[in-house]
Amino acid sequence: MNILDKITLDKREEVALRKGLIPISQLEQSVLFERLTVSLANNLRNSKSGIIAEHKRRSPSKSVINNGLNVQDVAKGYESAGVCGMSILTDGKYFGGSLDDLLSAKASCNLPLLRKEFIIDEYQILEAKAYGADVILLIASILSRDDIKQFSEFAKSLNLDVLLEVHNEEELHKSIMPSLDMLGVNNRNLKTFDVSLNTSKSLSNLIPDDFVKVSESGISNIEAIKELQPYGYQGFLIGENFMKSDNPGKSATEFIKTLEL
Ligand SMILES: O=P(O)(O)OC[C@@H](O)[C@@H](O)c1c[nH]c2ccccc12
After folding, report:
1. Could you tell me the distance, in angstroms and rounded to a whole number, from the CA of residue 244 to the centre of ligand 1?
2. Ligand 1 neighbourhood includes 165 CB (under 6 angstroms)
3. Measuring from atom 5 of ligand 1, which residue has the nearest CA?
4. Where in this chain does the record put each Indole-3-glycerol phosphate synthase domain (predicted)?
5. pLDDT band at 61 (very low <50, low <70, confident <90, very high)
6. What is the mean pLDDT of residues 143-154?
7. Is the ipTM reported for this complex over the cut 0.95?
8. Burial class, 142, CB count within 10 angstroms (exposed 0-12 / middle 13-18 / buried 19+)
9. How far is 255 from 249, CA to CA, in rounded Å?
10. Percent of the chain having pLDDT more than 70?
11. pLDDT (0 to 100) of residue 174
């Protein structure tokens, strides 16, 4: 079994358990449930740099990235760096994250927040809203076209933006529909962990222009962004390159300053 299948299987168990602990009615009573959300897609459209900065402690491909930071400082640092949005890993088992991380980030900044999660159930979208997210991620490789349609329409009904992630042509063709806001190309193959910016390059012309194009993973320098911009990418999701430093906010500040020169 590949790692993605394993994660998805564990996730089904986890979500079943969570549902038993916190009923939907309770999520809907969260003070955050009725708030106005902020659109990441709009921020990206109006930005020169287009950086989405991620909070990620560890990953199955890299083990530990950084364990010594607190989410509040990271969120404040990213906000003052001028990023367009922040991505927060909420998976505990493989990425060391939690919904509390999302809540802490929400309390510390006004950036649009992406719940970075393996979403396989509508319940997780309600959680995203209740814990402060403005955007959800849907991963095409673990969902059917019907799932993608159902989940994205549900997210839109809650005023959340939807970032749909693909890694190849087949996933892209399966996924195109009007209820998505952003199309993300993951440069990392989630089954093998191989990373190549060529994935973003080769899929770019197959993505219709009505979606904001986002390139995800393995972006470790300004040159990578300069290389991808001519292909129409307006968003760049960066995790490890910022998180491996002691001060991710400072590292994002320097990155964006150089990029906007
Ligand atoms: O740390 P990186 O290589 O900059 O990558 C960030 C982000 O793209 C990556 O964490 C990611 C992209 N899609 C995902 C899906 C699930 C978990 C994680 C991811």
Report:
1. 14
2. yes
3. 217
4. 4-253
5. confident
6. 98
7. yes
8. middle
9. 10
10. 100
11. 98
Kindly state if the Cβ of 167 falls inside 6 Å of ligand 1: no
Structure confidence at residue 188 (pLDDT): 96
Q: What is the dihedral of CA 71, 135, 256, 189, to 10 degrees?
A: 90
pLDDT of residue 191: 86
55 CB under 6 A from ligand 1?
Answer: no
Cα 186 → chain centroid: 11
Domains and CATH numbers, the chain: 3-32+39-260 (3.20.20.70)
Q: How far apart are CA 65 and CA 248, in angstroms?
A: 12
Cα dihedral 240/53/56/229 (nearest 10): -50
The per-residue pLDDT for 83 is 98
- Can you tell me which atom of ligand 1 is nearest the CA of 220? 4
Does residue 216 have its Cβ closer than 6 Å to ligand 1?
A: yes
- 3-state DSSP assignment of residue 89: strand
Residue type, 183: L
